[in-house]
Specification:
about 375 residues; alpha+beta; six-stranded mixed beta sheet; 8 helices; binds adenosine-5'-diphosphate
Length: about 375
């Protein structure tokens, strides 16, 4: 999907928005490819919604340029600002704005009516959009008689019916309960695939981002920290924030030292960790002294043998064992860090046991303190 053959449909350059002296979005640049789902991910207040509203034309940027299918729709320097209704973008929000007196089909027909489409075309397209989102047969229902999930499907149908160049979705699933939310994620992904539609999707939920995204733009304090496939960001995080936001991170305080075998990290308790050529993320910082070493839980292996630790092995004390039915979740404390590992039920372990853990050196990352 993001091969060199993919076509850029939306190009954003240097987009910024300031509210009363605070930069909600600062110098943000990215591209959206045709038929991809780009997820804007980040904690609350990091500027995701503002970015989406700037794309939709619901806000005017202080700086920046936006091109849709190579046509300039926003250029702050040239004073160009195309109003939302002339951008051919669809929007779906967290809360669906229901018009209580309207039926399902009237809702979906509305965007076509305001575009003065022919009656027959409206009839066909409304049916098709409703079938796509699984609401076929409910045409005559009042929208207030739909469940939460059905209302979000209706919002989707209403946004898709006029075949926008891009669909902008702002936390569209966050009002739904956990189970429905998971189901709707998969439905959305299927729908996007079938239609070949292009989505820009805002969420603060990393699982949602991992499930839906072809690419993730990870935002923090109004800037994009990293953009890439979920796997790229997970495996090769550009910053400690990116590392921590996508997936679970275990952090160890460490000293960078040299021994007879070369550079290594010494953790509390005198355990030693080696690391691979890609591990050092302290670029530009002095390489000696105090650093932060991180790994993911899946980079630690419980060693069954009882023996003294070697290089790349640490010990940790079992704090708690949670039986999840198919496996254990073991809370551990070691090298001044608290962390949780998954373990098979065949492991014989009890509270206060000391476990020997092998660390994959190629997965160790080192960050400046
Ligand atoms: P997110 O969608 O990531 O939660 P937002 O884009 O909503 O973040 O907000 C980014 C920052 O801009 C926040 O600090 C928020 O308080 C501020 N902000 C957003 N909209 C407005 C507004 N209309 N007026 C003033 N400040 C705003």
């Amino acid at each position: 999907m993001q091969s060199s053959r993919s076509k850029v449909i939306l190009n954003v350059q240097g987009l910024s928005k300031n509210y009363a002296g605070v930069w909600a979005v600062r110098d943000v640049s990215f591209e959206v490819y045709e038929s991809e789902i780009l997820v804007l991910l980040g904690p609350s207040g990091c500027g995701k919604s503002t970015t989406l509203r700037l794309l939709a034309g619901l806000e005017r940027p202080d700086t920046g340029e936006v091109r849709l299918r190579e046509k300039i729709i926003v250029d702050s320097k040239m004073g160009i600002f195309t109003p939302p209704e002339r951008r051919n973008m669809g929007m779906v929000f967290q809360a669906f704005a229901v018009w209580p007196h309207m039926t399902v089909e009237e809702h979906v027909a509305f965007p076509l009516l305001v575009r003065h489409r022919a009656k027959e075309e409206i009839f066909q397209k409304v049916r098709r959009a409703l079938d796509f989102v699984g609401l076929g047969g409910l045409e005559k229902r009042l929208s207030t008689q739909l469940s939460g999930g059905q209302q979000q499907r209706l919002a989707l149908a209403r946004a898709l019916v006029y075949e926008p160049d891009i669909l902008l979705l702002d936390e569209p699933l966050s009002n739904l309960d956990a189970q429905l939310r998971q189901q709707m994620r998969l439905e959305l992904k299927n729908l996007q695939r079938q239609l070949g539609a292009t989505f820009v999707f805002v969420t603060h939920d990393q699982d949602e981002a991992m499930t839906l995204a072809h690419r993730v733009a990870l935002m923090r304090d109004g800037v994009i920290e990293q953009i890439g496939t979920p796997d790229e960001v997970y495996e090769n995080p550009a910053t400690l924030f990116a590392h921590s936001f996508l997936g679970t991170t275990i952090r160890f305080e460490a000293s960078w030292i040299e021994d007879n075998d070369g550079p290594c990290l010494q953790l509390s308790g005198r355990y030693r960790l080696r690391f691979g050529p890609d591990g050092d993320r302290t670029t530009g910082s002095p390489t000696a002294g105090q650093v932060l070493a991180t790994v993911r839980p899946e980079d630690l292996q419980i060693v069954a043998e009882k023996r003294a630790p070697k290089d790349n092995e640490i010990e940790a004390e079992v704090q708690d064992i949670i039986n999840l039915g198919d496996r254990y979740e073991i809370a551990l404390k070691g090298c001044d860090a608290d962390f949780v590992l998954q373990a098979p039920k065949r492991l014989r372990v009890k509270s206060r046991d000391r476990l020997l853990l092998a660390v994959d050196p190629l997965r160790v990352k080192i960050w400046p303190r």
